[in-house]
Amino acid sequence: MPKFAANISLLFSELPYLDRFRAAAAAGFEAVEILYPYDTAAKETQRALMSNGLELLLINAPPPNYTGGVPGYAAIPGGEGRFQHDIRRSLRYAELLRPGMIHVMAGYEKGAEAQQAYIRNLQWAADWAPQQQFTIEPLNSGDQPGYFLDDYNLAIEVLEAVDRANVGLQFDAYHAQMIHGDAAQVWDRFSAHARHVQIGAAPARSEPGTGPMDFAALFAAFDASGYSGWVSAEYTPSTRRTEDSLGWMS
Ligand SMILES: O=C(O)[C@@H](O)C(=O)CO
Ligand SMILES: [Mg+2]
Asked: Transmembrane residues, as ranges (predicted)?
C-alpha cells in the first residue's frame, strides 16, 4: 500500500489555513503539500509544520497572487525575467519550508516557441538550484484551457530535452484520466519518470470511490512499479468535513 499525504490546499479547506495542519495530523497524515503558501509568512507555515510533526512534500512555483491570475511563466516566450523572479521567490520560501519538490507551472501558451522557452527555463531553474527537486505536471484542458502542458507525451518530450536529474514528472491520476482516458495505462507507460504522485477521482475530482476509476488497482500498480514516494490526496471532498471523505485510505 502506498504512503498517503494530504494536499491541504484542497483537503481540510473547510478550515482556516493554519488550522489545516493540525487537522491533517489528527487524521493520520505525516506529510502534506501546499500549492500556494505565499499568502502566509513562511515562518508561520514552518511553525505549523513543525508543531504538528508534518513533512512538507511540495509547493508550486509561482505565484503569489495566483488566484485568478496567470498560472506560471515557464513556457511563455519573453517571460524569462518574470519566471526567474518567481523561482527565486519560491526558493526563498523553500529555504525555510524545505519542500521535497517545487512544481513549476508552465502558463498559458502553445507551440514550438513556448516549448523551447519551457525547456530553457526548466534548465535554468535546475542549474540555479541543483539541490532542489523540480516537477512538471500535465493539467487537463477542461480545467485549464490553454495551459501549455496538457499531455503526458508532451511532458516526457520536454523532460528528455531538459535532461536534468532534478527535474521530473508529477503524475496526477485525476488529470491523467481526464486527458488520456485511462490513468493506469499512463502510469504503465511513464512511471519511470515519476517523482511525485497525486490522486483524485475523475470526473468530479473528488475522493477515490466517487467515480469509475479503480483505485485499488492503481495503488497496486504504484507498488508493483517500485514507486516508493508519497501519493498525495488532491481532491475536493464530497463531504462537508474532510475526515469523512477518507474512508478510501483503509
Ligand atoms: O492538479 C492540480 O491542479 C495541481 O497539482 C496544480 O499544481 C495546479 O494548481
Ligand atoms: Mg495535481
From this structure: none
Q: Is ipTM > 0.85 here?
A: yes
What are the domain boundaries of the chain?
3-249
For the CA of 143, the closest atom of ligand 1 is: 3
How far apart CA 55 and CA 44 sit, in angstroms, is 15
- Which CATH superfamily, name and number, covers 3-249? Divalent-metal-dependent TIM barrel enzymes (3.20.20.150)
Among 172, 206, 230, 231, residue to substitute to test ligand 1 (most atoms within 8 Å of Cβ): 172
Q: Which of 32, 35, 58, 136 to mutate to test the pocket of ligand 1 (most atoms within 8 A of CB)?
A: 35
Model confidence, pTM: 0.96
Q: Residue 139 CB: number of other CB atoms within 10 A?
A: 21
Contact 6, 15 (CB under 8 A): no
Q: What is the pLDDT of residues 60-104, one digit of tens each?
A: 997 655 556 678 899 999 999 999 999 999 999 999 999 999 999
Q: Write down the pLDDT at residue 62.
A: 76
Please name the residue whose Cα sits nearest to atom 4 of ligand 1: 35
Show which residues are catalytic.
Answer: 137, 234
